[in-house]
Amino acid sequence: MKVDFWFSENQNEDVKFGVRVKSHLFSIESKYQKIDIFDTEFFGRVMILDGCFMITEKDEFMYQEMLSHPAMVSHPDPKDILIIGGGDGGVAREVLRYPVKTVDLVEIDEDVITAAKTYLPSIAASFADSRLKVYNMDAFEFVDSERSYDVILVDSTDPIGFAASLFSDVFYMKSKKILKKGGIIATQSGSPFMNPEFIKKAYRGLNGHFKTVKPYLSFVPSYPSGMWSYIMASDESIEKHRDFTGRYVNEGIYRSCFNLPEFVKKVLENQ
Amino acid sequence: MKVDFWFSENQNEDVKFGVRVKSHLFSIESKYQKIDIFDTEFFGRVMILDGCFMITEKDEFMYQEMLSHPAMVSHPDPKDILIIGGGDGGVAREVLRYPVKTVDLVEIDEDVITAAKTYLPSIAASFADSRLKVYNMDAFEFVDSERSYDVILVDSTDPIGFAASLFSDVFYMKSKKILKKGGIIATQSGSPFMNPEFIKKAYRGLNGHFKTVKPYLSFVPSYPSGMWSYIMASDESIEKHRDFTGRYVNEGIYRSCFNLPEFVKKVLENQ
Q: pLDDT at residue A51 above 90?
């Protein structure tokens, strides 16, 4: 018999999304946030940060693939990769499918990584790869480093609290400095339906520093509205250089994900 | 101050979606189903049938436009249109934007139309158009008629209860008989993520009767998973004949909506 045990996310103060829970596997107040892992009936295991869905086993592939592959297939030769956030390991897993040389992952909260390794092994398996190096520090400081990258993927929480600086003008400027020639940065930018201010802010910021800026969309059912946005930017033109088919991405998705519904185009035009 | 008054849909037995309610405007047990209208904080007014979201003022345009326009822009000269269901008037509103001659709307439940006219006037305004005729009868019987159509749009509830026959093999056969040469049928086919059996059944059924069958997707945030599917079918090839830009649809959306994520392609291949 199923027990009437639910976790609900308040997607905003007037909308909530609930999933039936089999068991509450883990809960901790880290230095930065509250981390919970539930085993749920429909979505499998889920990681919740400060009450918000970060990852569910059932639909994580849609988000991880769409943040990673459009940039990875668009770079002529992606060897050195920087992941900002991404403490569950999912984006690293996707990036490591390519013959990359180094992947630096800057996750401020090492408790997120520990929880993922323990409870979400299919996502966190990437941490065992010798090409991956983890830095537990503030990404805003890390991007002052001397290193440089072909691709930077910003897989952070939303631009509130400690992650706000990762969507600032200064952060985009610093990121550009550590991109090699022809380098590409891609960031998640929230739901244009539930929170249009987020994508507007990221789009405006990237537009101020890069010649080519391409917003795109994918479905992510466990995220607010199911409609999620990302933005890719570079100082070169962005064109596809190779094929990669995953569980979400394929040739048709690369061709179509940049075609935005009219109301999303309007959100970006009305800056 | 906002009152803690919520309506929740059980999207399945393990997932629910809740919206904060300002007021419960209307409730009736019709001959066919329970009809509720709520005024909500985030989605505006919403129509609920048997506990499921049918329409919200905030995102109805995404569904109505995507069920209507891909077929309407793909027919060489759409003059006579049949809408199956569609009692809120939204699909009729979209279709009447074209220079059509007649629109027949077959809604079994006249109480749905009355509720929409009273509480959702921006959606139901189409009922005042003299080109529109309403038939309150079972669409499965209506499709035996002598009339014939350029475009048939199936805007029904999901294939359970009295709407089940609208996704049957016999219904698709009958629909084909009343399509004129070059005619196009389009149907909604549920969420491939939450309920893949629905799109599989509709796809299999249409494939059995039509030469060209094209599934496509759009976002609809208030529907389960936010990922919604539709299928267009015809005995001719389907090509775009004109432009129409709405709040969701535009040139890029027509080009891209048929490109399915890899897991949706797999759902349709594994018949």
A: yes
In this predicted structure, what is the pLDDT of residue B271?
58
Instruction: Say whether A60-269 and A6-56 share the same fold.
Output: no
CATH for A60-269? 3.40.50.150
**A234-266 pLDDT per residue, tens:** 999 999 999 999 999 999 999 999 999 999 999
Interface mutation vs chain A, best among B2, B227, B254, most A CBs within 10 Å: B227
Comparing alpha-carbon positions, the chain B residue that sits nearest to A226 is: B226
Give the residue on A whose Cα is nearest the Cα of B252: A259
**CA-based nearest distance A147→chain B, Å:** 35
Distance (Å, whole) CA B70 – CA B240: 8
CA–CA separation, A82 vs A105, rounded Å?
A: 6
pLDDT of residue A87 exceeding 90: yes
Question: Which site among B1, B38, B94, B193 would you substitute to test the A interface, given the most A Cβ atoms closer than 10 Å to its Cβ?
Answer: B193
Classify residue B86 as exposed, middle or buried by CB count within 10 Å of its CB (0-12, 13-18, 19+).
buried
- Residue A228 clears pLDDT 80, i.e. is over it: yes
pLDDT grade, residue A68 (50/70/90)? very high
| Complex ipTM value | 0.96
Distance CA A138, CA B1 (A): 39
Per-residue pLDDT, averaged over A60-78, amounts to 98
**Of A43, A74, A8, which is closest to residue A234 (Cα–Cα)?**
A74
CATH top-level class for A6-56? Answer: mainly beta
What does the longest C-alpha to C-alpha distance in chain A come to?
59
For chain B, give every domain's residue range.
6-56, 60-269
pLDDT confidence of residue A97? 98
Which residues in chain B come in under a pLDDT of 50?
none
- The letter for the amino acid at B182 is G
**According to the model, what pLDDT value does residue A271 have?**
58
| Residue A14 to residue B19, Cβ atoms within 8 A | yes
User: Is B155 considered catalytic here?
Assistant: yes
Chain A hits for B45, CB-CB cut-off 8 Å, are: none
Residue B96 has φ and ψ, to the nearest 5°, of: -75, -5
Q: With contacts defined as CB-CB under 8 Å, which chain A residues touch B264?
A: none
- 3-class secondary structure, B250: coil
Flag if B226 and A219 touch (Cβ within 8 Å). yes
